[in-house]
């Protein structure tokens, strides 16, 4: 006979954000249950993330949240308040250098860094080549595809300046970081169940009452949080809230490629993230003296929206491989382009303006932490802290829609106005409408 259980809060998903919400809610005294249809924590899109932690965003809440997020990663062991038998994920605090599109930095990002107090330096190209010998400092903007003859033209002008941002790095093992959060939540009384698929959200008189599982079991809770990553729109449809949200989410296919690092770049001894707006890529060191290269979604590249997040092409495509790796080879001329394609394919959970939705919904008790748009790994703990505070205040009777909750952050003391993450906001035109948020 199917079981019937009850919790204070059910969290759908055990990715980095879902597991972190499990931890924060259980720390706040809720009896929580994280459900995931995959076999372990962090096996969804979190498992293929580049796990880059950086602070440059084009909006005040974007920078403030990422700046706050950096402190969680720096304080990871203390924050977890518990040990994990598998060890702890390491935050490699290597800093970042951003090349190209200097206008975007000087007009949008740097004033926000100044206002919030995020450190940076403006470098000339001499400083760039001193730090990264072998880098080509030519300007090739705007990004093009290799099929376009102009892709192969030599740079006629050099890049003007670069921005060095020490407030950046990456997490060595994102699945381990998620497992760390699972263990931290369990230490506070939280429960995780894997290989367990939610197939329906139940409600009564405008209030969520629980979920139904694929085996027919019912689990009751007065609070259900959708943290289903690229499946977020499926769960919102199950709950009947998708149409009442002004901002929607969709799944977008993305590829990240791995290539051997060229000689002389110095990444092994002196790692760094490099954001290359000029060629539409970003890259960082990867295990085994490799480089991981991702896309900044330049306009010339097709976007592949996925209607069914359980059914999409998981093979690296020749077209994207050639374009992305050749863009990297323009910047690093000594790069050997391997014939065998290597990397990962996964989905972003993209909102209409590439800014997440951290909010309640029109169904009482049903909350969403969705639309992470390829850039919220770094903010998982901030999102979890804010969602816990928001849930607590709304359940205590606060009308968050009329009077949006403002939350003072743990480490920086900055105050985040959660209206910025409302499901009913107007599209934020200050967004970069890309993974840069
Ligand atoms: C290729 C790539 C590169 C990225 N790079 C970066 C980066 O460098 N920096 C950064 O900050 N962010 C990055 N991101 C974004 C970041 O990884 C995500 O924002 C984050 O991992 C989302 O976590 P999540 O917990 O919301 O979702 P997920 O990790 O996707 O977890 C959702 C979980 O929900 C489960 N689920 C779905 N439906 C159901 C159901 N019906 N029943 C039960 N369980 C269900 C899934 O199985 C899944 O495990 C990247 C993303 C990708 C794909």
Concise account of the structure shown:
With 437 residues, this protein is of the alpha+beta class.
Rg, alpha carbons? 22 Å
Q: What ranges have pLDDT less than 50 throughout 5 or more consecutive residues?
A: none
Q: How is the main sheet built?
A: 9 strands, mixed
Please count the helical segments: 9
Total strand count, please? 26
Per the CATH scheme, the topology name of the largest domain is FAD/NAD(P)-binding domain
For the record, what is the CATH homologous superfamily label of the largest domain? FAD/NAD(P)-binding domain
Percent of residues in helices comes to 10-25%
Please give a handful of descriptors for the protein shown.
437 residues; alpha+beta; FAD/NAD(P)-binding domain; D-Amino Acid Oxidase, Chain A, domain 2; 2 domains; 6-stranded mixed beta sheet; 9 helices; globular; binds flavin-adenine dinucleotide
Question: How would you describe what is shown here?
Answer:
It is globular, with a radius of gyration of 22 Å. The chain is 24% helix and 25% strand. Helix 1 (16-27) packs across helix 9. The chain has 9 helices and 26 strands. The chain folds into 2 domains: 4-87 and 173-248 and 353-421, FAD/NAD(P)-binding domain (3-Layer(bba) Sandwich); 96-166 and 250-350, D-Amino Acid Oxidase, subunit A, domain 2 (D-Amino Acid Oxidase, Chain A, domain 2, 2-Layer Sandwich), CATH 3.30.9.10. Strands 6, 7, 10, 17, 18, 19, 20, 21 and 22 form a 9-stranded mixed sheet that branches. Strands 12-3-2-16-24-23 form a 6-stranded mixed sheet, sandwiched between helices. It has a 4-stranded mixed sheet with strand order 1-15-14-13. The model has no long low-confidence stretch (mean pLDDT 95).
């Amino acid at each position: 006979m199917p079981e019937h259980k009850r919790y204070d809060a059910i969290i759908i998903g055990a990715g980095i954000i879902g597991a972190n919400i499990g931890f924060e809610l259980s720390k706040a005294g809720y009896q929580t249950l994280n459900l995931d249809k995959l076999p372990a924590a962090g096996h969804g899109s979190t498992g293929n993330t580049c796990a880059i932690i950086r602070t440059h965003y084009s909006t005040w809440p974007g920078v403030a949240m990422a700046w706050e997020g950096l402190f969680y990663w720096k304080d990871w062991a203390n924050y977890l308040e518990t040990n994990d038998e598998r060890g702890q994920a390491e935050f490699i605090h290597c800093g970042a250098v951003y090349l190209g599109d200097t206008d975007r930095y000087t007009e949008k990002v740097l004033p926000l860094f100044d206002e919030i107090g995020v450190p940076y330096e403006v470098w000339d190209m001499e400083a760039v080549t001193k730090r990264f010998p072998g880098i080509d400092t030519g300007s090739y903007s705007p990004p093009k595809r290799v099929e376009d003859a102009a892709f192969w033209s030599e740079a006629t002008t050099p890049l003007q300046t670069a921005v060095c941002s020490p407030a950046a790095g990456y997490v060595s093992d994102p699945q381990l970081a998620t497992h760390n959060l699972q263990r931290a939540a369990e230490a506070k009384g939280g429960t995780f169940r894997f290989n367990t698929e939610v197939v329906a959200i139940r409600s009564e008189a405008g209030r969520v009452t629980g979920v139904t599982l694929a085996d027919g079991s019912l689990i009751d809770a007065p609070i259900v949080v959708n943290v289903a990553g690229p499946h977020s729109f499926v769960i919102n449809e199950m709950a009947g809230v998708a149409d009442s949200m002004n901002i929607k989410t969709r799944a977008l296919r993305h590829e990240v490629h791995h290539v051997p690092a060229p000689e002389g770049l110095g990444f092994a001894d002196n790692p760094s993230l490099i954001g290359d707006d000029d060629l539409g890529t970003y890259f960082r060191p990867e295990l085994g003296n490799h480089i991981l290269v991702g896309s900044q979604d330049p306009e010339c590249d097709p976007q592949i929206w996925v209607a069914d997040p359980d059914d999409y092409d998981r093979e690296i495509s020749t077209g994207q491989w050639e374009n992305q790796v050749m863009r990297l080879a323009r910047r690093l001329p000594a790069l050997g382009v391997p014939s065998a394609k290597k990397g990962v394919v996964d989905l972003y959970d993209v909102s209409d303006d590439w800014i997440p939705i951290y909010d309640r919904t029109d169904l009482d008790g049903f909350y969403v932490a969705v639309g992470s748009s390829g850039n919220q790994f770094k903010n998982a703990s901030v999102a979890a802290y804010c969602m816990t505070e928001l849930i607590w205040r709304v359940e205590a009777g606060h009308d968050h829609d009329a009077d949006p909750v403002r939350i003072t952050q743990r480490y920086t003391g900055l105050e985040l106005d959660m209206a910025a993450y409302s499901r009913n906001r107007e599209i934020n035109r200050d967004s970069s409408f890309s993974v840069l948020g």
